[in-house]
């Protein structure tokens, strides 16, 4: 009986699924070692890789369940669950490393097949063909192979140069865009400063207009007062309580009196 069933049914179920996948992986890698055909090996590795992806997903679910239950159990139980999770991860990593090893061996075998030829008798045919060639033919064949190799190298260089050119153009484009963004930021700062100065100027003009209005109102009151005094003087020329306004002539009646006295 799985000891995890006494802790959580979900954990026990996930652990059982992971154990089934581990058994399938073990059997699959044993079967892979007996397969000689490269294509069948590739298909087998793909199936094993898919099982490892599923196992990784289940381990994540297992880890999530452990984190959800950390506060429910005592430290010893939490420690046991964490150790169980680490053992599952360690076992999965061992299968991942085994898969990488088989993948590398498969790629090496494919490279050997490419250099050796499409069939098993191709190497022997090449040996027989070389033995029947003259020295000149062998030299010509060698020169042709070197020319083909040089052409392949030139093509590789061309690809590398094109990649470098694309990277250079991309870097230049990024630099131009960065400079343009810096100019935009500077222009925005200038606009903000101009708006701030304009706001200050509008406030100063507003204060000046308010001051001018006060002065105009005061002058208007003074003019009204002067006009009132003049009117009162004309209506009541004998009123001594109203003083003459400096700079204004005395009332007309006074001037008539002076003429009569003469």
UniProtKB/TrEMBL annotation:
GO molecular function, one term: SNARE binding
InterPro entries documented for this protein: NPSN/SNAP25-like_N_SNARE, Sec20_C, T_SNARE_dom
Subcellular location: Membrane
Topology versus the membrane: Single-pass type IV membrane protein
Bilayer-crossing regions: 215-235
Ranges for domain T-SNARE coiled-coil homology: 143-205
Pfam families: Sec20
Key word Coiled coil present: yes
UniProt cross-references to SUPFAM superfamilies, sorted A to Z: SNARE fusion complex
Coiled-coil parts of chain: 31-72
Chief site of localization: membrane
PROSITE patterns xrefs: T_SNARE
Alphabetized SMART domains for the sequence: t_SNARE
Family annotation (Gene3D superfamilies): 1.20.5.110
Biological-process GO terms, alphabetical: protein transport; vesicle fusion
UniProt GO cellular component terms: endoplasmic reticulum membrane; ER to Golgi transport vesicle membrane; Golgi apparatus; late endosome membrane; SNARE complex
Keyword Iron-sulfur attached: no
Record keywords: Coiled coil, Membrane, Protein transport, Transmembrane, Transmembrane helix, Transport
Protein family membership: Belongs to the novel plant SNARE family.
Protein name per the record: t-SNARE coiled-coil homology domain-containing protein
Record lineage: Eukaryota, Viridiplantae, Streptophyta, Embryophyta, Tracheophyta
């Amino acid at each position: 009986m799985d000891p995890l069933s006494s802790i959580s049914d979900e954990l026990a179920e996930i652990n059982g699924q992971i154990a089934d996948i581990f058994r399938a992986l073990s059997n699959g890698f044993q079967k892979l070692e007996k397969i000689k055909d490269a294509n069948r090996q590739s298909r087998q590795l793909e199936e094993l890789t898919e099982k490892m992806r599923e196992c990784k997903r289940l381990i994540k679910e297992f880890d999530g369940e452990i984190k959800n239950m950390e506060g429910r159990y005592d430290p010893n139980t939490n420690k046991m669950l964490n150790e169980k999770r680490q053992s599952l991860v360690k076992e999965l990593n061992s299968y991942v490393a085994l898969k990488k090893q088989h993948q590398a061996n498969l790629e090496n075998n494919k490279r050997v097949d490419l250099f050796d030829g499409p069939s098993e008798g191709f190497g022997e045919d090449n040996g027989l063909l070389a033995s029947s060639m003259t020295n000149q033919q062998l030299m010509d064949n060698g020169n042709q192979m070197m020319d083909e190799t040089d052409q392949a190298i030139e093509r590789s260089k061309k690809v590398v140069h094109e990649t470098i050119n694309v990277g250079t153009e991309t870097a230049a484009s990024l630099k131009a865009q960065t400079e343009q963004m810096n100019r935009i930021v500077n222009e925005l700062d200038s606009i903000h400063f101009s708006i701030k100065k304009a706001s200050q100027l509008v406030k100063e003009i507003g204060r000046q207009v308010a001051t001018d209005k006060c002065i105009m109102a005061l002058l208007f009151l003074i003019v009204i007062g002067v006009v009132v005094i003049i009117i009162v003087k004309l209506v009541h020329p004998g009123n001594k309580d109203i003083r003459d306004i400096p700079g204004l002539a005395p009332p007309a009646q006074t001037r008539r009196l002076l003429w009569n006295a003469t």
